[in-house]
């Protein structure tokens, strides 16, 4: 006899909500950078508006998690999955907030002539999106080994951030009139650097679900 | 931390049927150890071995050793009455004697030969206080113990056991017949009692084991499959079967 069919179904739904939120956050990252790179102000506004939906999703995940804790008194891996879903939702919401921040920077820049063609920032975005996607895949597979590798990739993000920082600093030193525009790009780079740190947090949660160990995986230098 | 009691390679048979398979476990002093597992897994059988209740059943056989303070509880010449004074037991159904509350608590001491009434009164009051029952019954000590509620009867049985100053308290599903508030009262009481006594409890209630115990052993088909700190067992059990049982996948 299936003793806990309904509980298992609810757990499954909760996990699906986390993946759905992951897709929304991925889209926000992609669109925010596209808007910044192509000065697409309409798309930037879209990212800002859609952030409310992501916040709603986070609240839905939290409320479902709390419901399951109250009604099922979960233990062991059930408990670890529910707790982690709550934390993962918070980290993903923060990533979406950073994407929203980048969209706001795109609005701020508006139609001003670009300081330079954006190459490193879209690259950082692709890397963060790839890390997030693979982390959520690892969650689906319950693969702790995989997230260990992903969290180590945060160093690559930090390295590009360093590179962007040096490059923008050079612009500012050579021509102080670029300071405003360069600083805005610096904020966008910082948003991506922080987003990668949140992915690392999610990696730690996946590891906790699989192994039950609390473990700090990577300390970002920033 | 010293084990108050120890089981070393204990196997137990009812006739040809083996009920316990090579169980080894420590019951740590001044801590609460819970035994969980499905019906028929051997946890109650194991608890009963700890004060030789199994000897009341014919055709049983024990292998291995059970120690109290490092000494075999079944060595030649070991007195079973003395063992049961040191290792008291509380059962699933409260079983007060059809006597007054006072006489229920005084019973063990009287059996051990105490007749001094003032001393008996002191012991009865102390035991009822320790069992968190004194305030509720102090004016009714000469009423029947059977007139109390189920939760009060269970605490009366605990007081009756405490009156003979045991060292270890065995509890066999002590709350299975009680409502949630009476259950919490007993669990609170256990937290008080463990300061002076060592407690081992068998429970079917997972939340109770998680809430009330320090150590937890999981029995399945006569084996102790997993034993560890309660927080660990309920957050990251090492054995898949333990996980399946505590999260309700079988049982």
Number of domains of chain B: 1
The strand line-up of the biggest sheet of chain B is 6-7-8-3-9-10
Q: Could you give the order of the helices and strands of chain A?
A: HHHHHHH
Q: What's the main sheet of chain A like?
A: none
Number of strands of chain B: 10
By DSSP (H or I, 4+ residues per run), the number of helices of chain B equals 10
- The CATH architecture name of chain B reads 3-Layer(aba) Sandwich
Terminus-to-terminus distance of chain A? 52 Å
CATH topology-level fold name of chain B: Rossmann fold
Q: What is the CATH topology descriptor of chain A?
A: Methane Monooxygenase Hydroxylase, Chain G, domain 1
- General form of chain A: elongated
Q: Whole-number average pLDDT of chain B?
A: 94
Tally of DSSP β-strands of chain A: 0
- Percentage of residues assigned to helices of chain B: 25-40%
Specify the CATH class of chain B: Alpha Beta
- For the record, what is the CATH homologous superfamily label of chain A? Phosphate transport system protein phou homolog 2, domain 2
The total of helices of chain A stands at 7
- In N-to-C order, the SSE pattern of chain B is EEEHEEHEHHHHEHEHEEHH
């Amino acid at each position: 006899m299936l003793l806990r069919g309904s509980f298992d179904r609810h757990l499954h739904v909760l996990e699906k909500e986390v993946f759905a939120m992951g897709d929304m956050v991925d889209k926000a990252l992609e669109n925010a950078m596209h808007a910044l790179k192509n000065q697409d102000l309409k798309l930037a506004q879209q990212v800002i508006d859609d952030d409310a939906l992501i916040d709603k999703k986070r609240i839905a995940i939290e409320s479902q998690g709390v419901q399951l804790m109250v009604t099922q008194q979960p233990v062991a891996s059930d408990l670890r999955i529910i707790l982690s879903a709550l934390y993962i939702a918070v980290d993903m919401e923060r990533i979406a907030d950073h994407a929203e921040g980048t969209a706001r920077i795109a609005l701020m820049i508006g139609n001003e002539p670009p300081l330079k063609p954006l190459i490193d920032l879209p690259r950082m975005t692709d890397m963060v999106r790839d890390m997030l996607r693979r982390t959520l895949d690892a969650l689906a597979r319950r693969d702790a080994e995989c997230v260990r590798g992903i969290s180590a990739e945060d160093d690559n993000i930090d390295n590009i951030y360093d590179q962007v920082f040096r490059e923008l600093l050079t612009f500012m030193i050579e021509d102080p009139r670029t300071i405003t525009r360069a600083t805005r790009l610096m904020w966008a780079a910082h948003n991506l650097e922080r987003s990668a740190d949140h992915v690392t947090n999610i990696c730690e949660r996946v590891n906790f679900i699989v192994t039950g160990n609390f473990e700090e995986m990577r300390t970002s230098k920033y | 931390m010293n084990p108050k009691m120890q089981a070393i390679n204990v196997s137990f048979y009812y006739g040809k049927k083996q009920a316990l398979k090579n169980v080894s476990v420590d019951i740590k002093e001044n801590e609460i150890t819970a035994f969980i597992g499905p019906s028929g897994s051997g946890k109650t059988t194991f608890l009963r071995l700890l004060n030789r209740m199994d000897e009341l059943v014919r055709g049983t056989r024990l292998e291995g050793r059970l120690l109290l303070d490092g000494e075999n509880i079944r060595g030649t010449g070991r007195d079973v009455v003395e063992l049961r004074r040191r290792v008291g037991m509380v059962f699933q159904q409260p079983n007060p004697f059809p006597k007054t509350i006072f006489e229920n608590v005084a019973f063990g001491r009287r059996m051990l030969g105490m007749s001094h009434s003032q001393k008996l009164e002191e012991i009865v009051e102390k035991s009822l206080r320790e069992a968190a029952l004194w305030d509720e019954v102090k004016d009714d000590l000469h009423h029947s113990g059977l007139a109390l509620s189920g939760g009060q009867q269970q605490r009366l049985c605990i007081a009756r056991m405490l009156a003979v100053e045991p060292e270890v308290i065995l509890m066999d599903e002590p709350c299975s017949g009680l409502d949630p508030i009476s259950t919490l009262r007993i669990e609170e009481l256990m937290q008080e009692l463990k300061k002076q006594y060592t407690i081992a409890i068998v429970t079917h209630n997972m939340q109770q084991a998680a809430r009330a115990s320090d150590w937890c052993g999981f029995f399945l088909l006569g084996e102790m499959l997993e034993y560890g700190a309660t927080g660990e067992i309920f957050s990251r059990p090492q054995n898949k079967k333990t996980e399946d049982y505590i999260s309700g996948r079988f049982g």
